[in-house]
Amino acid sequence: MRLIVENRFALFGLVALALLALFGVAFVIRPIDAELGVTEPGTVRPELAARVCPAPHESDDDGAESSVAAFAPRVSRDDEGALWAVPLPGVPEEDEEGTGDEQDPGSDEAVDEEGPASGGEADERGELLGEEQTEPGRVWRTDTGDAAVPTALHAEGSLASGLDAAQTTVSSDGVTEVRCTEPAIGTWFALPGAADPEGVDLDALTVHLANPETFRATVSVDIYTMEGPSYSPESRGIHLGPGESTRLDVTELIQSTSSIGVHVRTSTGRVSAALLAEHSAGYSDWVPPTRAPDERQVVPGVPGGEGTRRLIVAAPGDAPVEVRVHVVAATEETEPEGEEAGEGDASGTAGDPLVLHVPPAASAWLTLESVLDGRPGTVVVEADAPVVAGVIAEDSEAEDDDMRVVETAYAASVDPLQGPLDTTAVIPDMPEGADVEVVLGALEGDARVVATPIAADGSMGDSVRAEVAAGTTHVFGTDTEGWGAPAGTDPEDGHAVRLELLEDSGPVYIARILRAGGGVSVMPVRPAPVYVELPVVRNSMTGIVP
């Protein structure tokens, strides 16, 4: 023992031997069926959900009618829960310094902190808009024509799973719609800038931000122009308390560029973001959010017709990106892609894609008129680094010797309906008096979808089966192909449509196109799964935020 104490090398050897024995015992008794501290993958049915619809850009005073519709499917007989809506007031004046939304309270753009005069009941949740719903499988609806602030929908229990909501504004000269988005830590958009030699540009761009959560959020807005990132002190560190909303005019940040990517991100909390674009031709539209940056993006529902069709791509990375683009245009015969165009030899097909080069942390655009040739279609974007993608469509008509823009619309990339979980989607509102087209794009395989119309009281109409061959885009007219309202439905009540992917079907990309009063609007249809996948969690300090 004395020798061990006096010899430091002997003591070191004993310590090493003890550690080796300890690790040996741990190795022998380790679990053999699962990694220690790692959960098994699984699924769960959400029990809480929130969606936010921005204040309509046209009010009842302008002769427009706006309403929010929401739908969550019934899965079992015992399903129950609650769905209600409350207004989200603007940021108090004393808190607006430093938020980037320093507006004159008396100006037209100032947010009315009192909220809409709903005349609804009030409780601990606030002033309720419309009626509270407790049963899934019915269409919830409320009028938002006089709303001056965003509307927040909250759902719990069975009404939180498979929920989707949208706001539609119909006026005498057009129609716009916006999907009510869930709060997130990041939201992306792709659209034109404010300076284009061909006139495909904007006069104004406004970011609508809302925090429906019960904790504070800090937001920043990044803009990727053709020359690189663009931001200002006002677009950084915007503070939103629980249940607050604000607007940020970013028009000054999009000058001298023909294309932009917009990234709304949070450093704390989550927010719902919406983007209102005012075109230089005088038309205003909500720009749908795109998928997060990825090496492959698919934009369904590009409207057919005369006029500009332009793809906008933004790359947030630090290296230049090569983008390859091809379209799957709708045809009367719905022939597989490549057969109509000489087995893919034509430009803009999968065999001969268009090529676009995007600088680092910047955006670029590509014209699609020649490859679409006036037909509706699906745009496929493949890149060697993550990008976001969107499309602007300008409907034009001849006036003297020039072409005049008569309407604008925006499309965006979207996730497909595909197994095993993302097999259902909801179109919450099929408004009265509008021509509706549902555009389905099948790329990897034949797709089969069942569409079921659902009345406000939950009664169902006849289901219609839609089949789309691989490599084609098909446009379904809801009136001509049997997707109409259930029998006995009051047209003023509207109805919803639930889409369900059949077994053994390939993925399908979906968008809904509305036409009314000479206007056109596009809403990408996202999956609305009843069950969501739980991430694998390891025994670490890392937190997970959806």
Account of the 3D structure:
Residues 92-115 have a biased composition (Acidic residues). This is Secreted protein. Residues 88-142, 286-305 are annotated as: Disordered. With 546 residues, the chain is mostly beta strands. 5% of the residues lie in helices and 44% in strands. It contains 3 helices and 35 strands. The strands form 9 sheets. Strands 20, 21, 22, 23, 24, 25 and 26 form a 7-stranded antiparallel beta sheet that branches. Strands 11, 13, 14, 15 and 17 form a 5-stranded antiparallel beta sheet that branches. A hairpin with a 2-residue loop joins strand 9 (164-171) and strand 10 (174-179). It is globular. The model is unreliable at 96-118 and 333-345 (pLDDT under 50).
List the helices and strands and how they pair.
Layout: H1 2-6, H2 8-28, E1 42-44, E2 48-53, E3 65-71, E4 81-87, E5 122-123, E6 126-127, E7 139-143, E8 151-157, E9 164-171, E10 174-179, E11 186-192, E12 202-211, E13 217-224, E14 229-230, E15 238-240, E16 244-249, E17 259-268, E18 272-279, E19 284-287, E20 294-302, E21 309-315, E22 321-329, E23 354-358, E24 362-367, H3 369-372, E25 377-399, E26 402-412, E27 424-427, E28 435-442, E29 447-455, E30 464-468, E31 472-477, E32 495-501, E33 508-516, E34 519-525, E35 532-534
Antiparallel strand pairs: 1-35, 2-8, 3-7, 3-9, 4-8, 5-6, 9-10, 11-17, 12-16, 12-18, 13-14, 13-15, 13-17, 18-19, 20-25, 21-24, 21-25, 22-23, 22-25, 25-26, 27-32, 28-31, 28-33, 29-30, 29-32, 33-34
